[in-house]
Amino acid sequence: MRALTGAIITAAALIGLGLTAVGFGTRYHTTIERVDSNNNPVRVHLDEMDRPLVFVLVFLTCAALVGMGITFLGLMYHHKRRHEELTWEKERHHLTQQRIPV
Questions:
Q1: What is the mean pLDDT of the chain?
Q2: pTM for this prediction
């Protein structure tokens, strides 16, 4: 369940990052078309962009990283628990086989 929750968080963050990329493209597509005197495109740096877009970019990147962490830790815990259950079942089966005389 933890892994599924992390995967959902990650998926939502990645969808949000895609929409943020569309937002950046829509907002700043005219600056890419401008060129300086050497015919090089004028670049817009992150500190020159709108603060809400940059905040959303940073927030969703952090959310995607946290979601990936939850996913992998949840899968790790799940596999550890399944391994312990399998070990317990093997021991229980071995004990029941020893008690029954053939």
A1: 88
A2: 0.73
